[in-house]
Amino acid sequence: MCGIAGQFLHGDVTPDSKVLAGMAEALRYRGPDDEGLYRTTHIGLVHRRLSIRDLSDAGHCPMASLDGLMYLVFNGEIYNWRELRTELESGGALFQSQSDTEVILHGYRVWGNALFGRLRGMFALAIWDASRRCLLLARDRAGEKPLFYRTSSEGLVFASSLEALRPGGVLNTIDPVGVVCHLVHSFIPASHTVWQGVQVLPPAHYLEIECGQLPVLTRYWEFPRSGPLKRSLHDCEQTVEAALDDSVARCLDADVPVGVFLSGGADSSLIAALAARHCPGIPAFSLGFREARHNELPYARRVAKHLGLEHVTFDLNVEDAIEWLPHLVTQYGQPFGDSSSLPSYGVARLARQSVKVCLSGDGGDESFGGYWRLQSGVYAARYGRWMPRIVRKRIIPNVASRLGGVGRRWLAVNALSLQVPGVSYTNRQSWFERLGDLAGPALLPALAEDLAGLRVGKTVDRPEVSLVQRLLYDDFQVQLPDAYLTKVDVASMAASLEVRAPFLDQRVLELAWSLPDSTKLHWGRRKWLLKRIAARHVPAEVVYRPKMGFGMPLPQWFRGALGEYLEVLMSDSLAVGAGWILAGPVRTCLAEHRAGLDHSTRLWLILWFELWLRLVEHRAGAVDMLGRGG
Asked: If we measure between CA atoms, which residue out of 362, 308, 369, 312 comes closest to residue 538?
């Protein structure tokens, strides 16, 4: 796990060493153990290393081929590096290290761009091929590792974080559409960033740019071209558990101590159980809250005791949140509205005291059907097929409104069946329905955008693909990489910790895609198959309890210290002063929240945006409880 950056120039000039050094400094949390830099005509490469595999100098980056014609910077882990190395050695390749980085370098020489489809793991990488005067950028299938870039007539600049692009002089103008996405979706979908002209390399793609040529973007992997396959329940359970067990074993392979995140939910509990097979007593790290409604520690303790794990816990309070926020806001580099980034950072800080790597349960919901959006989307689509639209639009609302609780559920499904694509994936507790009231003059032009459509990813337009697959595909294309994996990557790297997600292994993804729909949504029960597997390894009451997610007690905190913090910031708001938002709606929300309504999501989005403007856009330094720059 590392941070990478670089600059490619079309002209016969060498990138500025000061610019490259500034990029390296911005990445120091991603790679605190070592720093490397390579520069020559056309290219400058930067690497910050978090040493995980082959801790010797042989694993140093940028790594060069023996003939000096190729240089590589790499962020991530390749889990099938041993098999690839054996294959390359049988063809005559000579290795100087025990590093997966060197496998990529030799693999590119032998297989060219076909290398990327052979890699199982998480990665963002850059290869300079001097023989072709060509730079290649590539990103893993799920988007676990980030890679931002910007092109211009002069060339291309790239980095693992937005802040690392700043020395390259490309963070100049805020994109109002990016700000709108933050306020209505709680994250910025990768078709946009908050900076105009700055793009995200899509997952499962590589970019190739030669001197004097335009960049070419190519997709190297896609889900199998098939619908759900007919398989027995026994076969599904056996093959899924075997694939997950293999993935967990590969994720445990490291030259430093490894642990597991344990939230107390089904996914992380199953990963912990499989990890304990291979590493009995592996340390597990959990975070809780004093507020019982949000505290999952009792379930995590139950699982840890059942599995015989070394269990380390921490209680997060509002004082911690206020202390950590400036660091997190800076590390994310653009507005990011998922409040669970704070507990994610907290558990990463906790784990980093003992280990350098942790396994997580991320990705289980997207592949195996864990979210309510799947269930409601299936019901709404089926309902919409047999109930005429005119009836749903004009008659049902009047009838259902008279039927109490049953009617409310009916109204919800009816309304969903009438919505345009994307609305059902929008955070309705955000400013989505109130944006017209909140928007200041700088934001008003962006309101003409199709806000729901900005959230919609690439669709699967193949007749053999089922409705369940289509809905999960949307999660996988947008919500997973741009929200959930972004959260985990930045929050963990802000603590200099590597996080590995066994559910996102290529074989697990492709196997889950081909499973019968009934294994994911079975008579209204979501993630049915995966929970059956998990219940064989951990207590059933943990597996089948209601889903809590990794949320925070924001409603209580905004009625106390966090609300006071926001109030101080709003008294001299940069967001208001720059014309992005109006102060009145925020003050109204804060007052209504204190009176008993729940506007915590809306208030959190404003808090993060205001801090981002101060710390990143204006670079004013830290902000304490009195709102003073420091």
From this structure: 308
pLDDT per position as a tens digit, 403-429: 777 777 777 777 777 776 666 667 778
- Which residues are bridge partners to 358 per DSSP? 259, 499
Query: Can you name the residues that pair with 75 across neighbouring β-strands?
Result: 124
pLDDT for residue 628: 43
486-522 residue pLDDT tens: 999 999 999 999 999 999 999 999 999 999 999 999 9
Element (H or E) spanning 588, and its range? helix 583-594
User: Is residue 131 classed exposed, middle or buried when 0-12, 13-18 and 19+ CB atoms within 10 A define those classes?
Assistant: exposed
* Helix or strand holding residue 258 (H, E): strand 258-261
Other CB atoms within 10 A of residue 223 CB: 19
Report the alpha-carbon distance of residue 419 to residue 241 in Å, rounded: 37
pTM above 0.90, yes or no: yes
Q: Where are the chain's structural domains?
A: 2-162+198-219, 233-368+472-543, 372-471, 554-617
Tokens found for residue 425: 């994936």
pLDDT score for 420: 67
Distance CA 163, CA 331 (A): 7
pLDDT in the model for residue 630:
40
What residues pair up with 71 in beta bridges, in sequence order?
64, 128
Dist CA 424 CA 379 (whole Å): 13
Per-residue model confidence (pLDDT) at position 549: 55
Is 313 strand, coil or helix? strand
CATH architecture of 233-368+472-543: 3-Layer(aba) Sandwich (3.40)
- What are the distances in angstroms from CA 547 to CA 271, 467, 605, 606? 17, 23, 23, 27
CA 463 to chain centre: 30
- Cβ atoms of 472 and 211 within 8 Å: the answer is no
The answer to whether the beta carbons of residues 514 and 229 sit under 8 Å apart is yes
> Which pair of structure tokens corresponds to residue 583?
């102060």
Calpha distance 440→613 (Å, rounded): 15
CATH topology identical between 2-162+198-219 and 233-368+472-543? no
**Spatial separation of the C-alpha atoms in residues 344 and 488, rounded to whole Å:** 7
CB-based contact 33:90 (threshold 8 Å)? no
Helices (H), 122-265: 176-185, 233-251
Taking CA atoms, 455 is separated from 223, 337, 468, in Å, by: 21, 14, 18
Residue type, 191: S
Quick: pLDDT tens for 273-328.
999 999 999 999 999 998 767 788 999 999 999 999 999 999 999 999 999 999 99
Contact (Cβ atoms closer than 8 angstroms) between residue 70 and residue 129: yes
Contact 566, 606 (CB under 8 A): yes
From first CA to last CA, the distance across the chain in angstroms is 31
Question: For residues 62 and 210, what is the distance between their CA atoms, to the nearest angstrom?
Answer: 20
Return the CATH architecture of domain 2-162+198-219: 4-Layer Sandwich (3.60)
Q: Which of 539, 529, 545 is nearest to 269 (CA)?
A: 539
Phi, psi for 440 (deg, rounded to 5): -90, 180
